[in-house]
Amino acid sequence: MYIKQVIIQGFRSYRDQTIVEPFSPRHNVIVGRNGSGKSNFFFAIQFVLSDEFNNLRPEQRQQLLHEGPGPRVVSAFVEIIFNNTEGRLPVERDEVSLRRVIGSKKDQYFLDKKNVTKSDVVNLLESAGLSRSNPYYIVKQGKINELATAPDTQRLNLLREIAGTRVYDEKREESKAILKETELKREKVTELIQAIEERLSTLSEEKEELEAYQKLDKMRRSLEYTIHDKELRSSREQLEDLEDTRRSTSDRANTLAKKSAEASEKVQSIERELNDVSARADTLTRERQQLEVERQDFIRQRAKLELSVKDLEDGVSEHSKGKDRMENELGQLKHNIKQKEEALARITPRFQRLRTEEEEMSARLKISEQRVSELYAKQGRGQQFHSKADRDVWIKKEAKALSATIVCKEDQLRSLRDEAVQLKQRLRELDTAIQERTTYLEERRQAMDQANKSHVELKKQRDDLTNQRKEVWREEDAMKQTMQSSKEELNRVERNLRGTVSKSVNAGLEAVRRIIEEKKLEGVYGPLIENLECDEKFFTAVEVTAGGRLFHIIVDNDKTATTILQHMNRQKLSGEVTFMPLNRMQTRETQYPDSSDVIPMIQRLTFNPVFRPIMLNVFGKTLVCRTIEVASQFSQSSNLDCITLAGDQVSRRGAMTGGSYCAERPCVIGEDRRSHP
User: Fold this and answer.
1) Which of 496, 482, 486 is nearest to 670 (CA)?
2) What is the pTM of this model?
């Protein structure tokens, strides 16, 4: 056996498919320049035959792929074709092809173009003497020296691997294990046979006992049959008696059921009244609490008002004291003014007298000076003055002294006049201040009166607003209580309504509502039950006629229905939904019989004219009849479905459906009307 051909593609430096052939059965030598691919060629052979390229990480696999210019290589393979004419490989072919394909995420082996596992390849090479654990068939540098210096045991193992005996040794060990296991099983089988033989002996004894038992059992059954026949006759007589008793008991049970239903209705009415009473009690309790809070507020407000009144009284007393003080000051000022006026009156005559005296003294002074001058003149001016210049100096000095005296007197007179003017000005200022103070006090008195009036009015407004707020609070509490009762009633009605349909339909309706709210879809009008109205006596007939179609959803066209279904599938929403597109409804008007015993159901329904095709499709072929006999008659003569107000239905094809409806079962349409008023 030898390598006949090697095919490489995408492996390291071999980008394109490269076929290396032919190979000699004896020796082959590969020569070439550095970088021509000699090492990668030997790596390719090792890649298929040795263990060096097993358990590779993704980055190591990527390194084995070609990384040159051009498009990126995503996978590579190396295929070795062996000449198997000697039959070393356990394959009945002269040529055996072994290929290994590797990629970033795959590593596969192919034997003659068939995908095989790695263990199959290992066993195949082991049987041919190519040991993957000690690959002697690929000798690297230094391998010969290592084999030459290896101990005898290692070389013996190598020879066994070369000769291919290792596989048989392993098979021998496996055979020994199988023989041991078989021996254990044989011992178990022997023990089982012994147990079976013991059981057979026991069964033979039991067989004899069984034959005796069968004879006795036959006699026993005969006696039992006789006894059973007697008991059967007596039981039939008792059964007839019991049947009579059952009929009477059933009649009593029906009577009791009616009474129970009436009692249930009374209990429900009492419960509703109890809830109303509880609600009123809660309202009254809240009102009492509110009134208690208001009483506390009134007490606090009263205390505040008392304090305010006390403060106002203190302020009034202080204002009175201030007024008295101001009046005292005014009296004092008037007294001072009077004293000043009296003093001025006393001073003025003296001032006039002194002024007259001053004028007289000035005149006398002038006369005296003139006389002195004359006397000096008489005595001889020559004796008094040595020269004319001395005389002039003396005269000037005397004139200056007299001028200073005159100026001083004039200043005194001027100061007295100024003081008199200031006193008159002060008097006028005091009169003005007294007038201003009097005006200010009057204005303050008027402002206080106005403030008191405003305070009273504001207090009255506050009381009115407080009463209005309390009334609004009471109305709000009553509205909250009413809203809570309405919510409870709505929840109860919705629970009853959900109980009339399957969970899948409920889930589907909820899914459609959710999608409409999220996607803001238009053209969806809701279930059929929400788009029609009728008199309460027709509820049962309409419900029986429509059946599950009451919860079919009306849409404007089939595109809207498709969009909703796509959203449900995309969001994986559970539920069952049936749509009724208006653009797909093709109906025609029906000719109804003219009789007072029948009424076309569609004429007793109220709906939007846009939905008439759908209503005709559901209710257009149905008549409401007085009795079941009339329904049977008109279903045959008019070829229409007929139904009574009690829900007994006669199909135009001959089928009759009816019976009593449970009184406790909620009416679907009635519950829907209460949940969607």
Assistant:
1) 496
2) 0.35
Number of Cβ within a 10 Å radius of residue 369: 14
The encoded tokens of residue 207 equal 């067989």
Q: How far apart are CA 627 and CA 649, in angstroms?
A: 10
CB-based contacts of 532, cutoff 8 Å, min separation 6: 542, 605, 606, 607, 611, 615
Q: Do residues 647 and 633 lie in contact, with contact meaning Cβ atoms separated by under 8 Å? A: no
The residues of the chain scoring below 50 in pLDDT are 662-666, 668, 671-675
How many CA atoms, within 13 angstroms, populate the side-chain half-sphere of residue 255?
6
Report the relative pairing of strands 107-111 and 114-116 from DSSP bridges: antiparallel
Identity (one letter) of the amino acid at 355?
A: R
For the stretch 218-245, pLDDT in tens is 888 888 888 888 888 888 888 888 888 8
Residue 56, Cβ neighbours under 10 Å: how many?
14
Closest CA to 576 of 513, 519, 496, 509: 509
Interacting residues of 675 by C-beta distance below 8 A, sequence separation 6+: 490, 493, 494, 497
Distance CA 668, CA 493 (A): 10
Distances in whole angstroms, Cα of residue 272 to Cα of each of 41, 266, 404, 487, 673: 95, 10, 122, 14, 19
535: left (phi over 0), alpha (psi -120 to 50) or beta: beta
Number of H-type helices and E-type strands within the chain: 14, 16
Handedness of CA 303, 305, 308, 310 (dihedral sign): negative
Cα separation of 148 and 142, whole Å?
Answer: 10
Phi, psi of 70 (to 5 degrees): 100, -170
Q: Could you read off the pLDDT of 398-432 as tens digits, one per residue?
A: 788 878 878 887 887 788 788 878 878 887 887 78
